[in-house]
Design goal:
The protein folds into 2 domains: about 160 residues, Vaccinia Virus protein VP39 (Rossmann fold, 3-Layer(aba) Sandwich); about 70 residues, no CATH class. The chain is about 35% helix and about 20% strand. It has an 11-stranded mixed β-sheet, sandwiched between helices. A hairpin with a 5-residue loop joins strand 2 and strand 3. Helix 1 runs parallel beside helix 5. The structure holds S-adenosylmethionine and zinc ion.
């Protein structure tokens, strides 16, 4: 680890870490804390503490593992014995997979108080470390990780491109980086375009509303539209309102994602060729566009091996 303020070495002291150079102190209360403001990520703190276990894989549903594999192409072999970083870990649903895949160390970093939920879910595991920190100012030395990945995070920062470029130096020579961000275009066709327009238009209003109002709406309106969705023809009325309904998942997933979509302060969307360019500009090789779900641009690449 390194001091996020000056890059100096940090050493353990009572209750946390201290930088040997600038003497900044960082608390450790089960989470190593390098920031004390959630900034634009505040809605995520509330989101992941309210729905702290909904998307954790269970015997019944392993959708987080399905998404993790599809959006990073990381298999257990790529993870086992390696030091892995998840940038923007939320409550830890993907870090759970990495930890179970046998990572030597699975580090989850998040800007928001979602880290409290991640620590509650995974903090007791020997190979997991939860850090509250900012992707733009991370407390790690260059080349500290064999694998870095980020799913559904970078497009919620002030600059998706800068956030990605801040992560690349953390990957060791020969290591892998994989990111998955919102796609600018979902599918060709009028229904998708209308759906995107509806979402954008509503977000102009909803992202400015008090979070508890959006939480209230998500908890109480989604079950109503969930029921309406079962009535032929009438079901289309839901497309006029800011709700997401996933009929093949438990109801809580729709509640969670309605809040996620409409409360989030920042959101940007990206084209595959744009993300490819970022990878090329950072000198990455073996760049691959993955076959993930519609709505996502998932790209991975490798840091070339440096010869001594
Ligand atoms: C939609 S959530 C995704 C969380 C997790 N990857 C998942 O899919 O379950 C986005 C997360 O990114 C975090 N985030 C946003 N900006 C960040 C930053 N600059 N540094 C670290 N985390 C950030 C938010 O706090 C939030 O928990
Ligand atoms: Zn320092």
């Amino acid at each position: 680890m390194a001091c996020p303020s000056c890059g100096g070495d940090v050493e353990p002291v009572a209750g946390g870490l201290e930088c040997v150079a600038c003497r900044s102190r960082y608390a450790d209360d089960g989470v190593l804390r390098f920031v004390n403001r959630e900034a634009y990520a505040e809605s995520f703190g509330l989101q992941w503490k309210t729905f702290s276990r909904v998307q954790l894989d269970s015997g019944r549903l392993a959708d987080s593992e399905r998404r993790f594999r599809a959006e990073t192409a990381l298999q257990p072999n790529d993870v086992r014995g390696n030091v892995v970083l998840e940038a923007g870990c939320g409550m830890g649903r993907f870090l759970d997979i990495v930890s179970r895949d046998g990572a030597a160390l699975a580090v989850g970093v998040d800007l928001s108080s979602a880290v409290d939920a991640a620590a509650e879910n995974l903090g007791r595991r020997d190979n997991v470390l939860i850090v509250q920190g900012d992707i733009f100012k991370l407390p790690f030395k260059p080349g500290a990780f064999d694998v870095v990945y980020s799913i559904g995070v970078l497009h919620h920062t002030p600059s998706c491109e800068r956030a990605f470029k801040a992560l690349v130096p953390l990957v060791a020579s020969g290591g892998t980086i994989a990111i998955s961000v919102y796609a600018a275009t979902v599918k060709p066709g009028v229904p998708w375009a209308l759906n995107m327009f509806r979402r954008r238009a509503w977000r102009v209003v909803t992202r400015r509303l008090p979070r508890r109002v959006v939480m209230w709406w998500s908890k109480y309106a989604v079950p109503v539209f969930w029921a309406i969705d079962k009535i032929p023809v009438v079901r289309y009325v839901r497309y006029l309102f800011p709700v997401l309904i996933y009929k093949d998942y438990p109801l809580e997933w729709s509640v969670l994602d309605t809040f996620d979509t409409y409360a989030t302060e920042l959101e940007s969307r990206h084209r595959p060729k744009e993300v490819f360019r970022w990878f090329r500009e950072m000198g990455l090789t073996d760049i691959d566009l993955l076959d993930s779900d519609d709505g996502w641009v998932s790209v991975r690449g490798r840091v070339p091996t440096r010869h001594a």
